Amino acid sequence: MTDAVIFDLDGVIVDSEPVWEEVRRRYVAAHGGTWQPDSQRRLMGMSTGEWALYLSAELGVDRSPEQVATEVVDEMARRYLDHVPLIDGADRVVRELAANWPMGLASSSPARLIEAALRATGLTDAFAVTLSTEQVARGKPSPDVYLQVAERLGVAPERCVAIEDSSNGVRSASGAGTRVVAVPHASYPLDPDAERLAALVVPNIGELTAATVGELVTPHG
After folding, report:
1. What separation in angstroms does the CA of 188 have from each of 40, 107, 130, 168, 206?
2. Which of the chain's termini has less CB crowding within 10 Å, N or C?
3. Which residues have CB under 8 Å from 142's CB, separation 6+?
């Protein structure tokens, strides 16, 4: 049986992956770096410290990782002040699941962007626990953030259902032992290995229901 639900944020509740890509692409170009064909796929799921180091050390940006993190997150915060791109149906699904289970949020966004996004979408009170990968040792695809959210919810990871969009997110949640519902973004399809890890793949978050989540019995349960 399912005892708790853990959501990702970017790409599941808010359609922010294209915004992240645009902001970081422009930043790299403006600061002497070179964006690579696989950069966005590699970045999805990294913690703030990890992607800042990647832009600085591997893409050739002429800023320290600390400067990269501050300046990119500042720009994302400015974008969120103008508009937080809520995915159609996501708020309804969050509310429906929150009425049935304790809810956690495991996001690669920095804590201040998580707070801003939830406040703007009116979903702050739906989550008992919210955690950024910047608050754990390793970002996705490592399982750290999911393990920590499950612990804070007081539920074994094997009794949780995770809702993710990216390949690294699915790997992270599956590595923690959760059952994973994948909702891949049309622009960022799942890698074949990640798709195989998902217990269920749905084309959009609006199709997910409490009944469907409740049927996802874990292998250990």
Report:
1. 9, 17, 24, 11, 18
2. N
3. 172, 175
Q: Which active-site residues does the annotation give?
A: 8
Asked if residue 141 has a cis previous peptide bond (ω within 30° of 0), the answer is yes
Q: What is the token pair recorded at 184?
A: 């891949």
Residue in the structure block whose two tokens are 């005892």: 3
Whether pTM > 0.70 for this model: the answer is yes
pLDDT per position as a tens digit, 47-63: 999 999 999 999 999 99
Q: Is the pLDDT of residue 221 over 60?
A: no
| Cα–Cα dist 124/191, whole Å | 31
Q: What is the pLDDT of residue 94?
A: 98
* Residues whose CB falls within 8 Å of the CB of residue 201, separated by 6 or more in sequence, listed in order: 181, 182, 183, 184, 190, 195
Dist. CA 10–CA 24, nearest whole Å: 15
Amino acid letter, 143: P
Q: Is 104 helix (H, G, I), strand (E, B) or coil?
A: strand
Distance (Å, whole) CA 101 – CA 143: 21
Task: Encode pLDDT of 135-162 as tens digits.
Answer: 999 999 999 999 999 999 999 999 999 9
Is residue 107 within 8 Å of 164, Cβ to Cβ? no
